[in-house]
Structure formats: C-alpha cells, structure tokens
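A reminder from the course coordinator: this example appears on the midterm review sheet, so study it carefully.

Given structure:
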C-alpha cells in the first residue's frame, strides 16, 4: 500500500464517531477505517444499549429471585471461600489445594467434574445437565484461582481469589433456577489455572477443544472502575508473545576465562541490544524482561543464562515484526560472544472480540444495581481478558465492578478483596453474571442478537488483520512471522 493511501485511510478514520477510537494507534485506525464504519452500522441496527437498558430495568420476578439466591449463596459461604483462597495463595499450575476445594463444592452441587484437562493438572471442567434435557443453551463460566508470583510470597494482587466464588454463586443459582423451572440446557464451569504466567492455560485449553461445547462464556475480574468496552477489537495490551532466550556457552575458571564462553555476557549484551531497539519500534510497544538465570558461582564462567521477555503491541501483525527483530538481536549477541542461543516461544496471548450486546447488558445492570465508580464513557474493546483466541470462536463478556481503590498487582488490592469494597463488588459481579446467563438462556431475541453480532464481528476481524498487513507492508515488509 502506498504512503498516500495510508494518510487517506487515517484521515477517513478520524472523522468517524467515537467507536473509531477503540483502536490504539493511527495504523490500526488506518487499517480499520471501513471496518469501523461497518461495526458502527451494526451497532446502530442492533441497538445494544437500548436492549441492555430494557432488559435490566423491566420487571422480572424470576430474575429478582435469582438475584436473591445469588446473594444467599455469596453471604452463606462464597464470600468466606473468596477470603480463604486469598489467605492461602498458590501460584500458577500449583493451585492444588484451591482446585481440591473448588471441585468438592461443585460435586456437592450436582456437577460432574473432570480434573486434568489438556494435560494441565490444575485445570478442570465441571458440567451440570438440566433435568429437562440439554437441548437448550450451554452456559459457560470461566473461573480462576492462581496467585501472583513475588520475591517474598505469592499473593492475590489481582483478586483471583474471588473469581471462582463469584462464578459459583451465579452458576449454582442458575442451575437451581433451571431445575425448578424445567428449563433445558447445560452449565459448564471451566477451571483455568495460571492466568498470571505462561504458557497461557486458556490457549492450551482452547487448542485442545475444551471450550467448544459452550454457547456463551462469562468471567469476572477485579477492576479500578466500573465500565464497559466498545464493540469490536483493538485492545491495548493483550497481544503478547512470551519468549525465553537460552544462551549456552562453555564453563571455565574465571582466572582462565579465555577457555570459556560466557553465556551471561551474551545475555547482558542481548538485554542491552533490546533496550537499544526500543527507539526503532513504534511508541506503543512494550517489552518487559528479566534474567532469571545468569550463572551459579562468581569464580566459574557461566555456561548458561536465560532472558525471559513479554513482548507486547496493540496489534498482532506489528508484534510479529518486533518479535523477529528481537530474535535477530539474540542471534547477534550469541555470535559476538562465541555462544549459542535457543529461542523458545512458550506462550502467546491475543486480542479478542468485544460483543456490544453483552457489554451493554452488563453495564446496564451495573447501573441498575448501583455499582460504584461508574465510568459512563465506553472504553476500547477488551475481549474478555486472556481468552482472546476463545473469544474469536465463542461470544463472551468479562464482568468487572470496581473492587479496589489500589492499582492492580499490588498488596493493597489484595487487602481490598477482604474488605467491604471487594466483597460488595464481587457480589454485584455475581448478580450481573447471573443476569447475563439468565437472559441468554430465556430471551431468544437477545440470544439471537449476541450470536449474530459475534458472527459479523468475527468476519470483520479477519478482514482487519489482512488490512493491517497491507498498511504495514512498506514499513516491515511481508516476512514478519506474525506469531
């Protein structure tokens, strides 16, 4: 694509209404120009804001009974379960005690549970089939339970301790409703470990087809405000490549270092080279790295060193270009030090699809139920967190009522999960989640709208990626891996 055409696209995109600004960079907006118009036209036709408001504000005795039961479940045990998991943190892939507790609760409430999904010891799927049969929708609930790693001890600085109790409160209440009202369908709880480390478990589960039975997916997450995303795609920070660079040299005594090949020197040279690359990347790039291995003894030339990077960019096409450039820097550092490097991509997270009809319904209920710290302005699309690949296949939404005054991944945010600010938000999360499942189960018009919107957005997303490759062609060529 010619440079002049790029400016035409950018200019065209800038005159769009607010939804255009769901994209982070001018290049994204250039690639998305006509697509954003189509998304806006789709929203104008489906009227998701009006639909969400209508469903949230209308009188509905059965929904209100569902809310009452969710509150009973939360106050009679799930809040204590959230606190218990918070006070007994386990890092990713080691959440054995949490999984044992959670699966016992699910079995006691009529779920059939299978642990060890896709080869992951702490991943599980719990299924409940309605006594009225399974001809109705399959309602999927994603729950998490891993804690953050720390130089001191694990801690729930992202409030994952609450996610399973929130999902259980909504899920158990909806199964009771379905059984009582003889509503056909299925409820599936997906236990997904290690959200905070790689390789991303949800991608592994997605590749294994674990989510394929769900018609909709919901999850909750901590938040600093109550908001909703625009329909579309173009999230800020969840296109990530997780890559480990392993440098191998030759050991020797430091007093005869010339007999060795210093892997740590290579790693440091590489680390500095990446810092030197930063000005050559677009300003939205984010590269976060550590050197977890750099030798054992000062008097021995290190023959092994490891650099671990999270490479981020708002779109996956330019992310592939960055990843290729960083790989070249690693190979250069190895060549210049007489060492070897093995490049190990071990995880990837990708942008998801944000369904406006689901976002607007959750936001309407947040307003109706009096959620705190409401931001009335639609935010950029956000898929439903680390499930970007899944959200391209299955419509879903993340429910996030403001649950802390403190930044994410901090000790004060964990402490808020044990206080009224957290407890109140988590109960509202559960009620909103229950409302989404209730309407998807019972309201055929709403269910049809969600499915149609997701189908159209999925097709537009494929076109969007193709457009991005065209817009970037003059800058990065066509050889970028895009992985």
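Designed residues:
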């Amino acid at each position: 694509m010619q440079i002049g055409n790029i400016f035409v696209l950018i200019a065209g995109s800038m005159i769009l209404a607010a939804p255009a600004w769901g994209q982070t960079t001018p290049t994204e907006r250039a690639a998305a120009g006509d697509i954003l118009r189509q998304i806006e036209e789709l929203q104008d036709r489906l009227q998701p804001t009006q639909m969400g408001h209508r469903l949230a504000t209308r009188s509905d005795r059965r929904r209100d009974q569902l809310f009452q039961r969710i509150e009973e479940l939360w106050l009679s045990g799930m809040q204590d379960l959230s606190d218990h998991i918070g006070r007994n943190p386990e890092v990713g892939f080691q959440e054995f005690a949490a999984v044992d507790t959670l699966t016992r609760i699910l079995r006691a409430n009529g779920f059939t549970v299978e642990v060890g999904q896709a080869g992951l010891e702490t991943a599980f799927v719990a299924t409940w089939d309605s006594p009225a049969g399974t001809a109705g929708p399959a309602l999927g609930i994603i729950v998490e339970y891993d804690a953050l790693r720390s130089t001191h001890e694990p801690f729930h600085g992202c409030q994952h301790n609450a996610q399973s109790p929130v999902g259980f409160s909504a899920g158990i209440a909806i199964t009771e409703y379905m059984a009582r009202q003889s509503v056909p369908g299925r409820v599936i709880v997906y236990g997904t470990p290690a959200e905070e480390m790689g390789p991303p478990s949800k991608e592994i589960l997605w590749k294994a087809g674990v989510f394929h039975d769900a018609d909709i997916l919901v999850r909750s997450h901590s938040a600093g405000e109550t908001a909703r995303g625009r329909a579309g795609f173009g999230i800020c920070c969840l296109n990530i490549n997780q890559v480990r660079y392993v440098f191998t040299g030759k050991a020797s005594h430091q007093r005869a270092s010339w007999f060795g090949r210093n892997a740590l020197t290579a790693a440091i040279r590489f680390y500095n080279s990446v810092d030197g690359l930063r000005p050559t990347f677009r300003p939205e790039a984010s590269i976060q790295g550590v050197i977890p291995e750099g030798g054992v003894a000062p008097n021995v030339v290190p023959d092994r060193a490891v650099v671990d990077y999270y490479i981020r960019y708002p779109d996956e096409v330019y992310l592939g270009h960055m990843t290729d450039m960083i790989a070249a820097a690693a190979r250069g550092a190895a060549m210049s030090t007489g060492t070897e490097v093995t490049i190990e991509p071990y995880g990837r997270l990708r942008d998801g699809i944000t369904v406006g009809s689901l976002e607007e319904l959750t936001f309407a209920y947040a307003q109706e139920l009096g959620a705190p710290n409401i931001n009335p302005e639609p935010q950029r699309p956000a898929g439903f967190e680390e499930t970007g690949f899944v959200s391209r296949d299955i419509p879903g939404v993340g429910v996030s009522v403001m649950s802390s005054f403190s930044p994410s991944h901090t000790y004060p945010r964990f402490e808020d999960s044990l206080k009224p600010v957290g407890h109140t938000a988590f109960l509202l999360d559960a009620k909103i989640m229950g409302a989404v499942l209730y309407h998807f189960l019972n309201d055929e018009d709403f269910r049809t709208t969600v499915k149609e919107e997701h189908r159209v957005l999925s097709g537009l997303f494929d076109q969007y990626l193709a457009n991005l490759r065209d817009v970037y062609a003059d800058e990065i060529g066509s050889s970028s891996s895009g992985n």
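The chain has three domains: 3-47+460-476, 61-235+351-457, 240-349. The mean pLDDT is 91.
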